Amino acid sequence: MSRLGPCLRPRPLLRGPWAAPRGLRRVSVAAGLRRGPAGSSTASVAGMEELLSRSVPPLPPYETKEKAPPPAELRSAEFVRYYRALQAGPPRAELLTRLARDFGVDHGRVAEFSAKVLQAREQQRELGALLQAEDRLRYYLNPQYRGLFQHLGRLEGGLRFLVELRGDLVEGLATKAVDGPHVKEMNGVLKNMLSEWFSTGFLNLERVTWQSPCEVLQKISDSEAVHPVRNWVDMKRRVGSYRRCYFFSHCAIPGEPLIVLHVALTSDISSSIQAIVKEVLPLETEDTDKITTAIFYSISLTHQGLQGVELGTYLIKRVVKELQKELPQIKAFSTLSPIPGFTKWLLGLLSSQTKELERNELFTESEWQEISEITGDPTTETLKKLLNNNEWVRSEKLVKVLHSPFMRLCAWYLYGEKHRGYALNPVANFHLQNGSVMWRINWMADTSPRGIAASCGMMVNYRYFLEDTASNSAAYLGTKQIKASEQVLSLVSQFQQNSKL
Known about the structure:
It is a single chain. It is globular and about 75 Å long. Helix content is 49%, strand content 10%. It has 20 helices and nine strands. It has helices at 45-55, 73-85, 90-102, 107-122, 127-140, 144-154, 158-175, 181-197, 214-223, 232-238, 274-277, 312-326, 342-357, 365-375, 381-388, 396-415, 426-433, 449-455, 469-479, 486-498; strands spanning 203-207, 243-250, 259-266, 293-301, 332-335, 418-419, 422-423, 437-442, 459-464. The strands form two sheets. It has a seven-stranded mixed sheet with strand order 1-2-3-4-5-9-8. Helix 3 crosses helix 8. It is an alpha+beta fold.
């Protein structure tokens, strides 16, 4: 197997089929049509129905559930071949829709056994009879397609295929290529099954170095969703001195990165991503005396089909233990996290304020006067345009005057904006659930075009105080209380005093 290390000349990072194993290439449900089986442009509905009736095992009667023979392995393998041969687009969407709609829960049986459970309770029958009635009801609440997924999971390469299939489901639901309550239910059932199959007992922690297989380095590069890898030199830097890169693999898919965590080993808590991913330091041996802090600066899922499966929390915990073992002098664990959605939220506020009041109440009078003088516009229209095209960062005066209001607006977005009582921002919600503290908001921490567009260049540190993570997590999940530093709380207070929302 080739390795990047001994390559004689650099080459651009590859994109395309080579980058991922055949079984787990991403395939879009919403993509354009390609030629399907037997050269047809559309899949045969009759062929689909026949395949599904052969492949999806019927739910055996409750009395014989333990004795029912498993379906022939050939039937499950036939389903895999058929699905992969289908055109990516409407034909796959049609198959998934039919599978969800026609092979789900038998609602008649569910109603029948629900009534029997209620009857057992009303008649105050003995506990054994009630528990058996509940067990029957539980059994018939299983959709028929669950049996297909179970058998597919037992095939060689079947788990990889199910991740691929759920990736199509997730993407199809996002693009409305597939929709409806049946499909959403099937997506949830498969997600729960994958959560069991990808539990921590089946996962292996692996470290990536420059000597790792070329395919692994390529996969790590392709999957980097937070700070894109630019070239081989950049990749080598991210797995070199004062850096660590780890991933989880599964025992059934060995060597395949499922979720990847990048770590910078520093002497303090970083306030700028440029210092981590852009500065090219000379190759040197690590001086462990300089390392006191671990910064988690990127965590990326490599497969869309594992979305919603809890992997990130466990990866961080395992990496913390690994670093404590290797570098016991590390005392501080923190993230340097992006703030996706802040700019979009801010633009929405500016638009609503303009429509409702014809004036802006996000800034103090003196701040708005300075902003208006710089933009030459007493309304928010020019400011919104500058935020939309990132041009505002070209003006030193505008960057300076927006510093204070944007910092307090960002603090409120992270701390005060909620969804069902929890932090609206998905990255904040993830780290707060893990028990971290919202510790510091950093101005101009990511000056890349992506960073400016997503969060006006701001990033946030979430500190992991290991002795407090369990209690912090319990408080957040139980009472929705966010633990935050004095800096963040001070900015939130400034927002409440200065912004009349």
